[in-house]
Amino acid sequence: MKRLDTFKVIIYIVLTVICLAMVFPLVPLIFASLKGHDEFYNTGPLTPPHDWFNFHNFYLAWTQGDLVRGFANTGILLSVSLVGTILVGTMAAYAIDRFDFRGKKVVVWAFLSAALVPGVTTQIATFQIINKLNLYNTRWSAILLYTGTDIISIYIFLQFMQSIPKALDESARIDGAGHFTIYFRIILPLLRPAIATVVIIKGIAYYNDFYTAYLYMPDPNLGTVSTSLFRFIGPFSASWQVICAATLLVILPTVIIFLVLQKFIYKGLAAGAVK
Amino acid sequence: MFRYSVTNWDGFDPTRHYIGLRNYIQIFHNSEVWHTFFNSVYYLGASAVQISLALFLATILSYGLRGSNIFKGFLVFPFLLNSVAVALVFRYLFQGPGITAHAGGLDWLLQHLGLGHFITQWIGNSRVINFSLAGVSVWRYFGFNLVLFLGAIQSINPELYEAAQLDRANRWHQFRYITVPGIRRITALTFILAIGGSISVFEIPFIVSSGQNGSSTFVIETVRTAFVENRVGYASALAVLLLGIVLLVTFIQRTIFKDEQVDLV
Fold first, then answer.
1. What is the pLDDT of residues B146-192, one digit of tens each?
2. Which fold, A69-231?
3. Nearest by CB to A22, which of B103, B139, B151?
4. In this structure, are residues A157 and A194 in contact, taking their beta carbons and an 8 Å threshold?
5. B-chain residues near A258 (CB < 8 A)
6. First-residue to last-residue Cα distance in chain A
7. ipTM, 2 dp
8. How many CB atoms lie within 10 A of CB A119?
9. Mean pLDDT of the region B19-42
10. Which end of chain A has the lower number of beta carbons within 10 A, N or C?
């Protein structure tokens, strides 16, 4: 019994050290964001700020940088793309799972192979397509890319759909419901847990995406959270404390959401990777 | 895309000239491209560290100690953070003296741990930079592997562990003969994700060091040739090459883990 206790103690020490290492990189950032200009440049990174309630940098970051617009743009992209992904994904899953049609094998095979090819390798061809559609530097480029190239959510929906008994569809059909009624009245409401998973993993992915916004929407007016934050580097390079504050502002919503939805996020991550 | 890769197109010109395989030959003569592949090896090494660390911690956390959930939260949250924010956090952390009167957080830590002689230019030194950046990727991604492993371990039938305990198997034997075989599929998946991920690293080196000092990766290189230098033909050839490598890796994986194919439809 005594041995087991030392074992536990060692485990707790290991865990604590690793957790401290995880948090450590953020500490200088938090300190810096609360310091004034002179204080920042004259004190060490791990010296606690003189005034713990000096939110001037946050104010500067919020008003002078384009963060507000970034949050607004990301909000628009996020909501439109999520609705799009869910509609496209659930409809595709409904069609694949419930109907037999010519070329079904080809479609499924195409989805499978598309899932294997990582997105970055096809960027150049994708870019030409967006360009030809005249969507370059518009919001629609990101929305189209987010909703149109989203195979993972189709997988999640498909897997979930297989657990919905077909008898439900059939009895609805006997009652005279058409395909669309079945989809909207039966399939969509029953897919709610899968939709929640998709919203979580895709929401995080869209919020954090830098690549798409950077490449397809160079216009500062269309800047997302990621690109707006990236643009802080130039004009604010002489005042890193403001950059630190801006970084914290971007991190904050994620941390809050994580704390609230922890359990769902773990589930979502696992579901998204295992396909 | 393959069609572009055999031309010298610049992305705007209405005419494209067929130049055969010249782009491919050029790639093989370009040492910079080889360098980016070599850089992927750093990230691959980091993935190995990351996977073993995640497996170790997942095993520990699966014992169901009190407070596991809090620890788990600390370990996983970096994965959810915005990539630009993460890059900036580390750009600040790696800073040497010069920008401010004092060095960055990492140097401070080393000094206070009595390891001051390890201090170096974390992103200024081309021999160190890839280790620094690979370290960032461990910090960021290992929580994700942890979640996968934990999920897999928890789906193992607990009766197996009970039986093992009755047979007086110690923890190592339980890990070796129950946990490891039980999570084989997830482990394979993690390795595939790691290989794909280490070839396509983009944001962190791009923002922390702008790909300078020999930290450029394959994707940075491709984006630069295609969209900054407008050599779409050449960049397409690069992308085709990468695609080939990825498909090869996937194919090898499929043959090795053939018995574990999951049928979707």
1. 888 888 887 777 788 788 878 877 777 777 777 777 777 777 777 77
2. MetI-like fold (1.10.3720)
3. B139
4. yes
5. 73, 76-77, 80
6. 43
7. 0.75
8. 14
9. 67
10. N
